[in-house]
Amino acid sequence: MMSAMNELRDAVAALGVDPEEIEAAEASGTLLGLIAERFLLPGEKRYDHEDLAARTGLHPDEVKKLWLALGFPEPVPGEKAFREGDLEAVRTLLSDGTTITEYMLHETRAISSSLVRIAEVFVDEMWDQHFKVGQTQAEAIGEMSGAIDLQRIEGLLIGLLRRQIVAAIYRRMALHDREMREGLPSLAIGFADIAGYSALSQALEPKDLTDLVVGFEKETHDLIAQMNGRVVKTIGDEVMFLFEDARTAAVFALRLSSVAGLPALRIGLGSGPVLTRQGDCFGPTVNLTSRVVGVAAAGEIVVESGMARALDKSEFVLTSLGERSLKGFGDVELWRLEDRQSQVTSSYAPEQ
Prior knowledge:
Layout: H1 2-14, H2 19-28, H3 31-40, H4 49-56, H5 60-69, H6 84-94, H7 102-130, H8 137-144, H9 150-182, E1 186-194, H10 197-203, H11 206-226, E2 230-235, E3 238-243, H12 246-257, E4 265-273, E5 275-277, E6 280-282, H13 284-292, E7 301-304, H14 305-310, E8 316-326, E9 330-339
Parallel strand pairs: 4-7
Antiparallel strand pairs: 1-3, 1-4, 2-3, 5-6, 7-9, 8-9
């Protein structure tokens, strides 16, 4: 064991880490983080936020705002927290004449929050494959040696980003045509969550709970993609989704609720004007639909009046649930959605 730890110390020292830093990281249990930092963020921390501002033409307060928008704590005055790579990143950001405006900071927050989740996915993958219960730091780090494959990660992200940009342009073109005709386009928005999730989360073992949530995300994501919709975001056991028309959203909800192997779901649907910006959706239709899903019972699909009016009554059964008091909206008439044939014939076949 001492030999393995000595080899590990030598490897970390080869990255330019001082022995004192290595000892401190060992004592605090953060040696893996230190290794990742030196491997992924090469170079010394040479600049404080005022240095970074002077070298990029920004005001020090703008550097603070930008750093917070990226999702990191505000820089401590005088602390050398920035490397040459940080300086080049800010210069690249400003190279087209971009200025630090509230809109630009909003964009930065949106992009950074997505990158946070992507980073967590890669770290979860690494942890699940290489970290075992009861391991020492040296054993765990030895297992993870080479686990961070930058070439693979960067190639994957760039390739997928190019394809997603193309898909987003097609979506925006379609919405632009509708905006020219209708103003803010009428879209179908929905929320689906696992009924009784709080009780399940207390009753299941962590692995079983993880399998449940991952299975729910998989089936939801795959079916939405197959039906040419879009996952807006997932929030724990809930997914928010978007379709261009009410009928497709209704068929999706019926298919999802009948997928074998999933627990009972609660689904809420709405149709009306929706503002789409930077991957998210906004407006009264979205807010109302987020309230509607809370009314649904296990295994039930509930829709508001706009969605009910948009659906063909010869294809779907809509049963009035009467008026319900929804926070922020008062009394709202709601409807239970069912398929007229009691099941929707689907070519979607979830993997077993």
